[in-house]
């Protein structure tokens, strides 16, 4: 009778040892399957500060990280653009399925096609494009690249997308020093070797944080990753503060062909004092009024005349392709004529020689000369 408890214990121990054999399914469920299905994740990143997008003209190498537009393409100088995206929550070892840029088209463009090359910055975590850091055109780039040919203008004030950028984003993620939450920069470079102006402008963070460039990435991991949400600074500044050395084109008044209008430069700020590309010797130290003129057809001749109310005030006229002194096409004292203009948006600045300022009357006239010689020139408006 005393041996019965010992026999019972032996039987219980044997039963416990046999459990994995008797119930193999329960034992197998104690760990994850060896071949788990990859999890697909999507993140949409957006430029989130002024120093994270820039345009660099290759003739002057000045860093336009505070410009309200990003100029993509060639505007006599070729441009290199830098777009930096912070907090990229892609773990090392992830597989990139798709990647694309989304840019918000501004009003103007000139000439097509626009030929571009897109690469990523070859670094573990890209620095901002602040003046203290390397320029966009000075940074190491990925071996992988994507060609981007824009053959016609995207719709104004709408998003348009780049070709697929999977290979160059994957190259960055594959780096041994890559970590989730690092920053990734995309570099866009004009590859045209032409004297023609082929460019378009898109809105930067400085114009509207809501319309700053975006980067959409689809990738796969073995475990779920929370979707990141871009941090956007509230209260976007749609009309930037006037900037020294730059025309206030965001405040430009409309100037149509065939009109007469009145103005007064005393109602404007003095931001530009020298028009380096056309009249570098003229000290234009008075305030400048700015007008926006849209030309619908190629081969258009424009004539603008100014009549100061006070003849003692020396007011001059400048025809511009953009906001900066190097964008000046022509400057004249009283009558400005420019022939063979391409379709697009131009700016007319009324500025004061040696500090002149005052009221004036402005007139404009446009004539289009079609290539077919059988057609007579057509007056616009």
How would you describe the overall organization of this protein?
The chain has 3 helices and 21 strands. It is mainly beta and 381 residues long. The strands form 4 sheets. Strands 1, 3, 5, 8, 10 and 11 form a 6-stranded antiparallel beta sheet that branches. It has a 5-stranded antiparallel beta sheet with strand order 2-4-9-6-7. Strand 16 and strand 17 form a beta hairpin.
Q: Determine the structural class based on helices, strands and strand pairing.
A: mainly beta
User: What name does CATH use for the topology of the largest domain?
Assistant: Jelly Rolls
H/E series, N to C? HHEEEEEEEEHEEEEEEEEEEEEE
Overall geometry comes to: elongated
Distance from first to last alpha carbon = 121 Å
CATH first level of the largest domain: which class? Mainly Beta
Q: Measured on Cα atoms, how large is the radius of gyration?
A: 31 Å
Q: Look at the structure and give the mean pLDDT.
A: 85
- What composes the largest sheet? 6 strands, antiparallel
- For the record, the CATH architecture of the largest domain stands as Sandwich
- Tell me roughly what share of residues is in helical segments: under 10%
Number of strands: 21
Number of helices: 3
Classify the beta-strand content into a percent band. 35-45%
Total discrete domains: 2
- Which residues form runs of ≥5 with pLDDT under 50? 23-33, 227-240
């Amino acid at each position: 009778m005393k041996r019965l408890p010992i026999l019972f214990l032996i039987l219980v121990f044997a039963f416990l040892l046999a459990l994995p054999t008797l119930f193999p399914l329960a034992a197998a469920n104690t760990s994850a399957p060896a071949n788990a299905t990859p999890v697909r994740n999507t993140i949409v990143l957006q430029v989130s500060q002024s120093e994270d997008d820039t345009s660099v003209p290759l003739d002057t190498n000045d860093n336009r990280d505070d410009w309200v537009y990003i100029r993509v393409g060639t505007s006599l100088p070729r441009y290199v653009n830098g777009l930096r995206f912070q907090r990229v929550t892609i773990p090392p070892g992830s597989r990139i399925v798709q990647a694309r840029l989304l840019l918000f088209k501004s009003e103007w463009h000139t000439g097509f096609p626009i030929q571009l090359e897109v690469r990523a910055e070859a670094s573990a975590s890209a620095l901002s494009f602040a003046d203290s850091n390397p320029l966009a055109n000075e940074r190491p780039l990925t071996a992988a690249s994507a060609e981007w040919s824009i053959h016609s203008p995207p719709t104004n004030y709408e998003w348009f997308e780049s070709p697929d950028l999977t290979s160059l984003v994957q190259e960055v993620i594959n780096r041994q020093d890559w970590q989730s939450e690092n920053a990734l920069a995309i570099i866009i470079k004009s590859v045209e070797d032409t004297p023609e102006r082929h460019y378009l402008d898109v809105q930067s963070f400085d114009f509207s944080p809501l319309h700053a460039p975006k980067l959409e990435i689809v990738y796969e991991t073995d475990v779920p990753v929370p979707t990141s949400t871009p941090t956007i600074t509230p209260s976007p500044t749609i009309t930037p503060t006037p900037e020294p050395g730059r025309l206030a084109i965001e405040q430009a008044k409309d100037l149509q062909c065939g009109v007469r209008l009145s103005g007064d430069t005393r109602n404007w700020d003095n931001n530009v004092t020298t028009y380096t590309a056309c009249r570098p010797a003229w000290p234009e130290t008075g305030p400048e009024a700015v007008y926006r003129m849209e030309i619908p057809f190629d081969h258009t001749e424009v004539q603008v005349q100014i009549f100061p109310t006070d003849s003692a005030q020396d007011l001059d006229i400048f025809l511009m392709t953009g906001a900066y002194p190097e964008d000046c096409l022509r400057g004249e004292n009283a009558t400005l004529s420019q022939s063979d203009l391409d379709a697009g948006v131009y700016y007319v600045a009324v500025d004061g020689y040696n500090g002149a300022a005052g009221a004036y009357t402005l007139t404009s006239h446009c004539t289009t000369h079609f290539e077919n010689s059988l057609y007579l020139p057509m007056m616009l408006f």
